[in-house]
Design brief:
Mean pLDDT of chain A: 94
Largest interface: A-B, 29 and 24 residues
Shape of chain B: globular
Distance between the termini of chain B: 41 Å
Helix content of chain A: under 10%
Largest sheet of chain B: 6 strands, mixed
Oligomer: heterodimer
Amino acid sequence: DSGVTQTPKHLITATGQRVTLRCSPRSGDLSVYWYQQSLDQGLQFLIQYYNGEERAKGNILERFSAQQFPDLHSELNLSSLELGDSALYFCASSVGDRVTEAFFGQGTRLTVV
Amino acid sequence: AQSVAQPEDQVNVAEGNPLTVKCTYSVSGNPYLFWYVQYPNRGLQFLLKYITGDNLVKGSYGFEAEFNKSQTSFHLKKPSALVSDSALYFCAVRGRRAAGNKLTFGGGTRVLVKP
């Protein structure tokens, strides 16, 4: 158990809908990361927050947004969902915001039908 | 831009034999390099990292990796593979000038250790 908690574990929703994925980092970790894992794109970095502020941004679609709250948990909001958004979404956390290993949650499997 | 190549989709090895998973990278300047492992229906688990110093890095579960700057490689090795090492292995890189801790992952290599 990495100490990173993601909810829900599975999510099935229809195209055009909006969903929110939630992540609680390990105790003491200030950085939260979001990754998308799909068969065709592999593991893609979406975004990093450090102590509430956006620190690094990857190939995150405009339909997607994230935030980190004062209690350090994070949410990833996915809107206007498309079939191609079906993927495993991982949250990870780390103590610092630079060169440090990240600890991954078990992921949320999103299926868009 | 930073990128990682894992040239083998799958590596098959007999239990007890040496295991090598290949990784090459491209990044501006010196790299930070990582290996992660993913078991079925689980998140990624950190194995080891190279930041600076000794080119041979030792990590969890008996794994090690060797940083080779001239060949831009960071191959993962284990002297004697176990059936329980069967999993998906990811190499990742971050350039030293990159913002935050944005890691770029390779496509992954599936390792199958046969008894």
